Amino acid sequence: MDCFSIGSIVVVKTMHDDLIEGQVMAFDLNTKLLILKNVSENSNRLNNVFIINLPHCKDVTVKKELVGSENSEPQSINLQRLSNRVRNQVEQKKRLVSALKANASEEAQNLYIFLAKMLTEQVYWNGIDIVVFDDVVIRPPYRVENVEAKSSGKQRELEYIKKLVMNRQNQINSLASSKAPETSSTKN
């Protein structure tokens, strides 16, 4: 087929015999790239987007041809949203690298990542200590009792971080107890 109409439904059979069904978002005849979207299995609000190199496909079948120009304009891409997603992913990878470089325990690294996801740039390492809001320090072994403020007057921030650390500890404890094998004691 020379061209695919935007909005048409097609089924692509890949070289690995995978079937991809979706709505045509774009097609470039020169590069023979086809972009399809379909509704995500995880959420009806999300879409999966596939960029398919047609020379590497076994078969393409048009399931439903879109007639008319009702949906011929491709949707615009929200570049700001895309840029934010890229920036967030880069920041997350930087946090992971920072946690690994700190040479701290796995538990400390997980706590750091947990805090950094919520507080982004306001969490960093100082040696093996985790520093939050430039004024709250979490020292090894990274428990609630190891959270302290560098200066007075930061009680609100201190209590907030203690609460987050306690919530994280409770998550870990509940996860560990749910994974622990049940033991029964029977005496003969």
List the helices and strands and how they pair.
Layout lengths: L8 E6 L4 E10 L4 E7 L7 E7 L3 E8 L14 H23 L4 H14 L3 E4 L2 E4 L3 E3 L8 E3 L5 H25 L9
Helix pairs in contact: 1-2
Explain this structure to me?
- The protein is α+β, with helices and mostly antiparallel strands.
- Helix content is 33%, strand content 28%.
- The chain contains 3 helices and 9 strands.
- The strands form 2 sheets. The chain has a 5-stranded antiparallel β-sheet, with no helix packed on it.
- Helix 1 runs antiparallel to helix 2 (106-119).
- It is elongated.
Give the structure's gist in a few sentences.
With 188 residues, the protein is an alpha+beta fold. The protein contains three helices and nine strands.
